[in-house]
Amino acid sequence: MSVAVRPAPMTIAEFLAWEETQELRWEFGGFAPQAMTGGTVARDTIQANLVAVLNARLRGTPCRARGSNLKIEVAGSIRYPDAFVTCTPLDPRATVGREPVVVFEVLSSSTARTDRVEKMREYWDTPSIRRYVLIEQDAVSATSHAREAGRWTGRVLWAGDVIALPEIGIEIPLEDLYEGLDPEALRAPA
């Protein structure tokens, strides 16, 4: 199927109106639409586990985890993170999540540069975001970046570590995100 992409540049409002008429999902990096592609079983498993674990631990709080079907507006861009947590009530008809506090991306070879550079800059420039977690899909590992005293710090996590999320009052054992996946198979060459 061929999809006509509207000529750039666009504003966020123009992008959101345009995207409503599209069959596929698109991100907006502040200039032009960028098509979203599919993922792997590992990525899907990690994302599903992440949202389930977050919501189980957030039960009874004002915070709620959302998956990649809901987009967020960050620093002049529209993104579909793999998961994010917001503690602000959302209109049930909303298509854009507001005021994310914690954002998660599951890295793949095709998205790692965008996640580590472009999105990181956008997330860091969004005042409501207090933590950005990059999760590896090829190994039990993650990097957790936190906003502390106006600066960003990062910590690499490995098997046996816990992702501390004091911004939302919970912790998650890293292995919980990989439930249903064989760690040895993740590292095996494709």
UniProtKB/TrEMBL annotation:
<feature type="domain" description="Putative restriction endonuclease">
    <location>
        <begin position="13"/>
        <end position="165"/>
    </location>
</feature>
<protein>
    <submittedName>
        <fullName>Uma2 family endonuclease</fullName>
    </submittedName>
</protein>
<keyword id="KW-0255">Endonuclease</keyword>
<dbReference type="Pfam" id="PF05685">
    <property type="entry name" value="Uma2"/>
</dbReference>
<keyword id="KW-0378">Hydrolase</keyword>
<dbReference type="InterPro" id="IPR011335">
    <property type="entry name" value="Restrct_endonuc-II-like"/>
</dbReference>
<keyword id="KW-0540">Nuclease</keyword>
<dbReference type="InterPro" id="IPR008538">
    <property type="entry name" value="Uma2"/>
</dbReference>
<dbReference type="GO" id="GO:0004519">
    <property type="term" value="F:endonuclease activity"/>
</dbReference>
<dbReference type="InterPro" id="IPR012296">
    <property type="entry name" value="Nuclease_put_TT1808"/>
</dbReference>
